[in-house]
């Protein structure tokens, strides 16, 4: 698990590892004094935020499609790069998907994995789930500013420094000041979820196929056919067929 501020270098670090592994499989030199790299059958990545609106696929839907492909096809000889999971939906939805994906990857797939996340709650799972180890991209706060140290160090990051990064990007001081006030209120009101003691229940619910059908049924009921364009209709048909398969 890799935590740390935006722009600190998490994505760069993970891509560097992936490229090094690919080079090693080719028998190439790699950028290191020495390296021990095991056989890797495939490199799976969930990186970046994009969409495929031509087929009616949103950013979050594309993220989930990529996640599904990884969880279904990766093996214990694979390398998995998760650059954020669950960021395109509500906080608790996203955190739940991220934790479940982490647990499945660690317990069932057992692949070599780098998982960058801003869900600091996940760092509590070190020691609870075998193989989960915390690292972070080092950064130092100086007043209201932030200095990136460009180092990967052991342990979890204490903060994402989102407001500080917003300041670096040029967001107006009035907005930043208000954001700090709102952040304090939210932190005071909402207790941190206890992921360590989240109960694991036997799944006696409906199957994935039945869930897909229910989801599609509800979406069909909500459709406004009078405003649906042909390209949107084709996109939905494609998405429904993919879900049912």
How far is it from the N-terminal to the C-terminal residue, by CA? 32 Å
Q: Using only CA atoms, what is the Rg?
A: 21 Å
Strands of the widest sheet, in order across it, are 1-5-6
Q: Low-confidence parts, pLDDT < 50 over ≥5 residues? A: 204-208
Listing every helix as H and every strand as E from the N terminus to the C terminus, the arrangement reads EHEHEHEEEHHHH
Structural class: alpha/beta
Number of strands: 6
Q: Describe the main β-sheet briefly.
A: 3 strands, mixed
What's the helical proportion of residues? 40-55%
Strand composition percent: 5-15%
Mean pLDDT across residues: 82
How would you describe the shape? globular
Short key terms for the protein model shown above:
245 residues; alpha/beta; three-stranded mixed sheet; three-stranded parallel sheet; 7 helices; 14% strand
